[in-house]
Amino acid sequence: MNTTKANISKQQEGADDVKSLKGTLVSTGIVGAVIVIMWVAVFWLYMTRL
Questions:
Q1: How far apart are CA 26 and CA 40, in angstroms?
Q2: pLDDT tens across 10-38, in order?
Q3: How many helices (H) and strands (E) does the chain have?
Q4: Distances in Å between the alpha carbon of 28 and those of 12, 17, 32, 44?
Q5: Nearest alpha-carbon partner for 16 in 31, 8, 4
Q6: Maximum C-alpha span of the chain
Q7: What pLDDT sits at residue 47?
Q8: Phi, psi of 49 (to 5 degrees)
Q9: Which parts of the chain span the membrane according to its record (predicted)?
């Protein structure tokens, strides 16, 4: 198979996309964890003051 500069740059862009998606997944997971922790903290406060 003939690898040209265009093919190589497309492969590199594809690798960058995968990295970007992994970063997005990690960021979304962190935000989700913070939201869950906040809900648990508010629920705990509600239950202790009942």
A1: 21
A2: 666 667 777 788 889 999 999 999 999 99
A3: 1, 0
A4: 24, 16, 6, 24
A5: 8
A6: 72
A7: 96
A8: -100, 5
A9: 25-46
19 versus 2: the higher-pLDDT residue is 19
As a whole number of Å, the CA-based R_g of the chain is 22
pLDDT of residue 46 exceeding 60, the answer is yes
Residue with tokens 């492969």: 11
For 5, 20, 49, 50, the CA distances from 45, given in Å and listed in that order, are 60, 38, 6, 9
Tokens at 46, concatenated? 């509600």
Tokens found for residue 38: 């906040």
